[in-house]
Amino acid sequence: MPVNSRLVTFHAGDSGFWRIISNKPYVGAAWPEAKRLEVSMGEPPNQKSIWQLTGVTSNERYVSRIEKNTLSAKQAPLGRPTADRAALIPIRKTAAWWAMTQDERLAIFAESHNAIGLKFLPAIARRLHHCRDLDTHQPFDFLTWFDYSAADENAFEDLVSALRQTPEWKFVDWEIDIRLRRE
Ligand code: HEM
User: How far apart are CA 115 and CA 133, in angstroms?
Assistant: First the structure.
């Protein structure tokens, strides 16, 4: 079988590149604790883990050409040498969100998400993974992944708290906030 290069697996256990420093539900049930996290691209390796979450990177659904150009011009890649902090925030949205049409969801998303997020580029680098269409059951709809420097930790707090006050977040019914350090 060809390798799916858009597949990304986050596995947590006793070993891994990142040390997990906190794991808190923002909304919904708690998620199992683990010491470390590894991120693998392509087919998940056969590795013992406490939990594994898989998603795929995909095409964008919500950005206009102008927004895409603005994002591309401002954003930084993951993995900068200075980015020794990271966050994995798995998110599930409600049945009401998924029952809407694409234009209805866009109207809610476009109210604020991109405008808030843009203020934090290039300090925060990000990658979005979708989980709903995989052939293995996934508990979350999205795995959101970010890295940044220690100096930008407070900015990251401001970013998540601003997003959580938006109308879009009324449709989030499960969100786990996992913070990591490269050590
Ligand atoms: C670094 C600043 C951020 C920027 C610039 C940003 C930008 C974006 C953009 C442009 C999309 C739409 C992608 C598409 O067109 O399909 C998106 C989707 C998403 N973002 Fe962010 N974002 C940021 C931070 C965050 C944070 C901190 C979270 C979580 C707490 C988050 C959660 C999500 C989720 C769950 C989606 C998928 C929404 C859906 O498809 O329903 N984002 N983001």
Answer: 28
